[in-house]
Amino acid sequence: MGSSPFSKRIKALPLAALMLLGTLAPTAQAVAAPPMSASPPAVPERRQRMNLRVFDRVWTEVARDYYDPHLHGVNWRQARVDYRDQAALAPDDRTLYRVVNRMLDLLDDAHAGAIAPAAARRRDHANERRAALGVTLYRQDDESWRIEAVRPGSPAEAAGVRVGWTLLSLDGQPWGPDVEVIGGAPVVLSLRDEAGQPRVVTVTPQAMDPLPVFVAARPNPETLVLSVQSFDPGLGRWMGRQLQDLSPDVDVVLDLRGNPGGRLLEADAVLACFLPRDRAWATRTGRTGRAVTLKVSQRCGDLHGPATNELAVLVDGASRSAAELTPAALQEAGRAVVVGERTGGAVLIAQDTDLPDGGRLTLSRADFVTRGGVRLEKTGVTPDVVVTRTLDDRREGRDPMLDAAVSALETASAARAAVS
C-alpha cells in the first residue's frame, strides 16, 4: 500500500463469511439433500504444533518480560486457558494472530501486539521498490483503515481514491499489513467516503519507489522544515548534516506528524541536536522496578554542540512513542514550541521478538516518565499551540499547523532580536 503507519491488530472476517461470498444459489436437489456436517475441516497436526509454538512463545514472553510484573491485574494463567485451544485450531496465520492479539489486548497496551510472518516481511522491506497502490493508511479505533494520504502519480490517485475515505476491504477481504498486492494485477477496493456512502474502486498496483523517510524543505528562506516519518537508523546523522552549516538565523521546524516512533537511540540523537550532552530528559523503569535516568548521550551527526536555531515541533494524534518522547523532552527543556494536536499517548518503551514462524511480537519492556515526572502513556503530549488540520485542508494542500509553527517561530525570533 505504500507507506503504511499500520498498527498491530487486524480484524478479519469470519471464515464462514468469506466462503459464502462465492456460494451459488442451491438447486432443488441441494435443498432436498440432508444437511451436511457443520464441523470445520480438520487443522493439520503440523499446523497445530506451529500454532502452539507461536502462542506459547508469546504467552511466556509476556509472563517473563512484560514491564509490569502484575500485568495490569490480568489473570495471565487464565488467559492461557481461554485462548490456547483457539490458537491451536487456527487454520491460517491471520486467524492465529487474531487470537494471539485478542489475548494481548487484555493488557490494554498500545505497544503490545504481534504481526504475522507476511506482515513482518512487509515491514522489513518497506523501504524497497515494490508494487503499491500509493496510499498511506491509519488504523482507526473500530479497526477500519482511514486514507491519510494519496501519493501523487499513483494508481490510487488515478482511480479517484481520496484522502479521508475509509478502506473496508480489498477483493472482498479485510485489509491488513499482511495483505500483498501484485504489480499489474487489478484489485477491487471497497471504501466508504466521508459522508458514509459506499465507494467501489478498481486499482491496478504498480511498482513504486518508497517515499523518503527523512525530508528537508525550505518553504521560505528563513525556515527549514525537517520531516521525519519514523525514527529509523541514521536519523541523527541526517539531522546533523541538515544543521551543520545552517545559519543560526534560520528557524527550524521538526515535523513528527504521523510518526509511529522507532529507535530510542535515534530519539536521543535528535535531542542531541538541540540539548546539551548529559542533560537528563526522562526516566525509564523496567520490570525489576529499578529506575534509570536517560541523559542525552548520542551525537547529532558531526555537530560539535547543539544547534541554537529557534525550534518548533509539529505533532498530531498519530505521533506515537519516540515521536512523543522527543517533543515532550524539548518542551520541558523550554527548547521548542510544540504545535498541532495532542499526541497518541503510546509511550512505553518496547522491543521486538522474532516468533518461531517468522512473525514478530512487540512488547513493552519499560515504563517511562519525563524529566518533570509526567507519565505520557494514555495522555500524550499537549501542544503549546493547538491547531487542527481539517479534511478540506488536507485535500486542498493547506497546512495551518505548519503556518502556525512558522508564525510562532517568527514571533520568537523577533523577541530574540529585540533582546539582542
Plain-language structure description:
With 420 residues, the chain is of the alpha+beta class. A six-stranded mixed sheet has the order 9-10-11-14-15-18, with helices on both faces. Strands 1, 12, 13, 16 and 17 form a five-stranded antiparallel sheet that branches. It is globular, with a radius of gyration of 24 Å.
Summary tags:
420 residues, alpha+beta, 6-stranded mixed β-sheet, 5-stranded antiparallel β-sheet, 12 helices, disordered N terminus
Question: Unreliable segments (pLDDT under 50, ≥5 consecutive)?
Answer: 1-37
Q: Per DSSP, what share of the residues sits in E-state strands of 2 or more residues?
A: 15-25%
The end-to-end span amounts to 51 Å
Structural class: alpha+beta
| Cross-sheet strand order for the largest sheet | 9-10-11-14-15-18
Q: Describe the biggest sheet?
A: 6 strands, mixed
SSE map:
Blueprint: H1 15-20, H2 28-32, H3 45-65, H4 76-88, H5 93-104, E1 113-115, H6 117-124, E2 130-132, E3 135-139, E4 145-150, H7 155-159, E5 166-170, E6 187-192, E7 198-203, E8 206-208, E9 214-220, E10 223-228, H8 235-244, E11 251-255, H9 264-272, E12 280-286, E13 291-295, E14 311-315, H10 322-332, E15 337-340, E16 349-354, E17 360-370, E18 385-386, H11 391-396, H12 400-419
Parallel strand pairs: 10-11, 11-14, 14-15, 15-18
Antiparallel strand pairs: 1-17, 2-8, 3-4, 4-5, 5-6, 6-7, 9-10, 12-13, 12-17, 16-17
